[in-house]
Amino acid sequence: MYVKRNIGWGLIMRYAWKRLIFFTLYSGAIFCAYHFFKWDFIDIPFQPLSVIGIAVAFYIGFKNSQSYDRFWEGRKIWGGIVNYSRTWAIQVLSFVNMEDKAETKRVQKEMIYRHIAWINALRVQLRQPKSWAIKESRTVERLFDSHGERNPSCNEAFRFVNPIEYEDLKKRVNPATHLIKNQANTITELKKRKAIDGFQEDQLQSVLEEFYNLQGKCERIKNTPFPRQYGYFTWLFTQIFILLLPFGLLDVFEKDIIDVAMGMREWYLFLMIPFSVLISWIFSTMDSIGDNSEDPFEGRINDVPMTALCRTIEIDLRDMLDEENLPESIKPKDYILY
Fold first, then answer.
1. Distance between CA 89 and CA 100 in Å, rounded?
2. The three-state (H, E, C) secondary structure of the chain, written as one string
């Protein structure tokens, strides 16, 4: 998640430099063909092109609105994970009570630490790329790779469970699911040992049920690609508009050139190149904004900051255990909060 109020031009150019070069060369070639080679027949009326532009703008607007809804739903889900994590910790600390105080502390810590392992395991699972995930330019990918937040090696779950449990988790297809299952087994064992009563068992199990619900919602977004009829055709229609745009601008500037002083006419017609580049960049950027919002768990610039949220939960829960030397909050890297 980008946290700086204004997006720096350095980051903008990482995304845009290839397109700007292409738009400049493309519109420049059309200008040269029209002006120097006298291909007067290549200009087209701007009126039908403007209709295409309006239609593309509406289509892009719908796509971006739906893409943002996917991001915001993902953020709300992780807000629920934060809230229920605190509920889980306070219930464990309040309900679990045995005669042996040291054993009580050990079990409470084990259950809370296993939950911290769950959120980290879930984060890593959600960050694994899908075949339909957007592929950025190498310049942008190099920025994300340098931060190292999308790699499975970032999984910190092993720090919060015992070695035997961790070795078992590495064999599982869905480790996060098994961590919740292990929590349920612990609750059942505590009930047998009369460390909790039936009502407390129901309360703890209901929170685990909510964790499964929240995990399932995340997996639904992760495993359901944005409908390609919207994603692909928005891109296709945008490209068609961009490719036709310089021909339409020739018509616009040609009609107005008679009102320009004789010595300035060539320069006036030349302005179709920067205007073509500017309009093309605006439309292509609008299309890219939707692409970068449709998968909110990929660890990219506009995605849900799961690493930071996991650290926030860890700090809160370990503070509830009255631990000292708590970890620091996650800081943005190049103004990107992961």
1. 20
2. CECCCCCCHHHHHHHHHHHHHHHHHHHHHHHHHHHCCCCHHHCCCHHHHHHHHHHHHHHHHHHHHHHHHHHHHHHHHHHHHHHHHHHHHHHHHHHCCCCCHHHHHHHHHHHHHHHHHHHHHHHHHHCCCCCCCCCCCHHHHHHHHHHCCCCHHHCCHHHHCCHHHHHHHHCCCCHHHHHHHHHHHHHHHHHHCCCCCHHHHHHHHHHHHHHHHHHHHHHHHHHCCCCHHHHHHHHHHHHHHHHHHHHHHHHHHHHHHHHCCHHHHHHHHHCHHHHHHHHHHHHHHHHHHHHCCCCCCCCCCCCCCHHHHHHHHHHHHHHHCCCCCCCCCCCCECCECC
pLDDT of residue 58: 93
Q: How far apart are CA 116 and CA 18, in angstroms?
A: 42
Indicate whether 237 pLDDT > 90. Answer: yes
Instruction: Tell me the C-alpha distance between 285 and 61, whole Å.
Output: 12
Q: How many CB atoms lie within 10 A of CB 29?
A: 12
Q: In whole angstroms, what is the distance from residue 207 CA to residue 214 CA?
A: 11
d(CA 300, CA 311): 18
pTM of the model: 0.88
Q: What is the pLDDT of residues 102-132, one digit of tens each?
A: 999 999 999 999 999 999 999 999 988 888 8
User: Residue 44 carries which side chain, given as an amino acid letter?
Assistant: I
Phi, psi dihedrals of residue 135, rounded to the nearest 5°: -110, 115
